Amino acid sequence: xxxxxxxxxxxxxxxxxxxxxxxxxxxxxxxxxxxxxxxxxxxxxxxxxxxxxxxxxxxxxxxxxxxxxxxxxxxxxxxxxxxxxxxxxxxxxxxxxxxxxxxxxxxxxxxxxxxxxxxxxxxxxxxxxxxxxxxxxxxxxxxxxxxxxxxxxxxxxxxxxxxxxxxxxxxxxxxxxxxxxxxxxxxxxxxxxxxxxxxxxxxxxxxxxxxxxxxxxxxxxxxxxxxxxxxxxxxxxxxxxxxxxxxxxxxxxxxxxxxxxxxxxxxxxxxxxxxxxxxxxxxxxxxxxxxxxxxxxxxxxxxxxxxxxxxxxxxxxxxxxxxxxxxxxxxxxxxxxxxx
Length: 340
What we know:
By secondary structure, this protein is of the alpha+beta class. It is built from twelve helices and 14 strands.
């Protein structure tokens, strides 16, 4: 196993195709690890989350020169003010992060990575601070075992829940799998939308020519929520816009709106990737609260996912009650830290 270090975007661009190919066969294939997502993230340092960072991408190749592992890292001061090597994409806007390596090669890759990071050629660091790794990731026990071999201090912290719905074969079977009260509530809201005082319709954006206008509309809907309005700084809005374009160009954007008459009432910005839907963000026009447009659109999107054979509907990080009412079952994201 031969390690190489990439420290500039031009170097990173040279392995874009290999990167995504490797991800498709890695232990955790999530959209936040796509090459184009992470390079977009790096362009704004997570929408301004980080003031400074230095790329430190560790790649591993076998004797035949094939890419077999990637540790997508960057060097920065972490939230505790320590010099840290963090996972590219950390923390706020990338729900799931990990290393890019197949499960069978993970132990050897992790051993080689930790040996390098504790050796004389690594940059100086106080902590390896790796957020948003799913609790069922094989990385976590492998990382702990590798740390123990080198006498390093390993700690693990549970962060947020990340509810996910395992989809049924059809809509009715899905409904029968959730609580009776919620099942009746979904049906009631859908019936009410069908008989609303103005026509209620929904759609997924497919036309690139109108994409910028649809992004503007989505950001406007987000801004109805005061917390989201504060979140949408100029640089964060730029990051969101770039993420939408990136996902559209790569074929895994699902930007969906529900309309009442000619007005947009709610929207979801999702990723349709890896045979599942990943719910990334949403916005609601509170003028239409009586319709519950967010819930109605979510029901339509779950039905769409079932009809299109998706296996899961991932609600991602956060414990909002509606995620459980639609059948979400908790997983958790973790924070793993290693100190010398």
